[in-house]
Every structure is written in C-alpha cells, then in structure tokens.
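Sanity check

After download, print the first record. It should look like this:
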Amino acid sequence: MHFKLGFLQCITAFMQDWDDYRYLLAVKRYGSLSAAAARLSVDVTTVSRRIKLLQKNMGTQFLERLADGSYQLTPIGEAASAKAEIVEKELAEFEATATGSDLNVAGNVRISSVPMIINRLITPKAPDFLNQYPDLELQLNSDVRELNLLKRETDIALRLARPQEGGSHVKVKRVGGLKHAIYISANVPLSDYPKLPWCSYHDDLAHLPQAQWINKEVNNGRGVLSRLKAGDAEGVIESVATCQTRSVLPTMIGDGDLRLKRVEDKTSNPDFVREVWLMVHSDLSKLARFKIVSEWLRDLFEAEESR
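Expected structure tokens:
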C-alpha cells in the first residue's frame, strides 16, 4: 500500500513538471512566447508564469530576454527542451500501448494540405471513411502555409512536391499524381472558349507548373492573361465558374464541380502531373489510426490518378 501510494505521488509530481516542460518546448518550436501561447490555446502570461515556475523549481535559467524584448533559450534551456522532446515521444508511445490505440483505430489524426485538397477531395470523402471507424476523429487543416511535422503542428501532411525536410524523423511516400486539364464555365458555349482570358496566379506563384503552362500558351499567341490573378486554386475555380476566364485545374477537382466543364483543345492540352506526397512523423506511423488514415489517403489519390 505504501509502495503504491509513493509510486502514484511520483507519477503525479512528474506529470506536473512535464506539463511545465510542455510550455518550454512550445517556445522552442514556435519561436516566441506569443506563438507558443497561441499554439497551446492559453495567454502569454500563462506561458511566462509556467516557465518561471519551472526555472524556480530547477534552480536554473531556461530563457533569456534579448535587447529587443524577445526571448531565446539558454544553452541549458536548449538541452532541457531536447530532453523534453524525447519524453514527449516516449509518453505518446506509452499512452498508445496503455490505451490500445497502437492496435485500435481510435483517437484524433490531424491532416494538413492546401485548401483545394482538403476542401475539394478529403472533406467530401471523409464521412464514408469515418463511418467505418466510430472512435476515430479527423482534424482537417486547410492552409497554404506548410505546417511543420517536426514542430507537431500536424500529424499527416500532403504536399504537391517532393518534401525536402524532415530527415529520418519523417516518413515520406508518393501517393498519387494530379492530372490537369483546361476548364471553362458550364454556362459558356465552347465556341467562346478561345475568347476567354487565362486566369493565372500571383507573380510569387509563377513557379507552379500550371502557371508556367498558361504563360507558355500566352507566349505562343494562344490567348491573353486575365487582369485578375488568383492566390490559390480556389480563386481560379471561382474565376472560371463565374464565366470570366478559362484556366488549368486538376481533373479530380474540375470534373467534380458541376459549374465547370472540361475543354479538349486539339492544339494544346496540359501535359504535366503534379505529384502528391504524404508525410507522417516516424514515431506515429506505426500506430493503427495513422496507418489506416495514411492507407485511405493513398487509395484516394491512386484512384484519382488511375481515372
């Protein structure tokens, strides 16, 4: 009885300290007290107070304030946060084993990608998938900004180019490719197609394959650019759907939007495929829920690519 009580007291004390370390780890990952607070859904005062308490208990300084008012980790703070990352990983593995979530498809999985992929493909398909797994929850993040797996901003990321970051901490797999075609509004007669200007992207997105293809068409005298430039595929879709322009879109998106129709241009058709890559943190990839979700996403894109 005394042993059990002592053990529980030790575990409780450890978890209280660990909760404070989470705040330090968040500052390291997100770069500032305010960013850490936003990520943890608390105010900046709470982050500051918890780290000060941790420093007091440990008798050392983990953060130092710079001349511009910002904070940075001290060398001992860097060492402490590195150890905290190891503990975080081991706790996640222990929790998965203890609850059986390493075997059962249960819990939350965060998926991030560009809005087009999340809103137009994954969200419509998700309900049927979730019906098979009543204890599974998907958190879908549509963001043009690439969320960082190493900072635990997401669990699974879908990228439209081969990822270069992550190293051994991240598992990367090609899961499909996005074929492209020309689309106009379903309300526009095909005879008017050549008259429509091309909707392309902001100049800082000129590197995109679809933007390069459209620019090539214009340079070859096959149309002009619209004065309306989009910041993402959603903007392009709306521009085309409202009869203003023509553009190039993934067939898995364009064919599924009843407001659009595909054009088969005998003189020129898009000849490129954008690869889709799935990224998952290595220490999560073995858990059942991440395996199942990763396989589902792979099947979705393989089916689209084979159409």
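If your output differs, re-run the checksum step. Summary of this record's structure: The longest strand covers residues 170-185.
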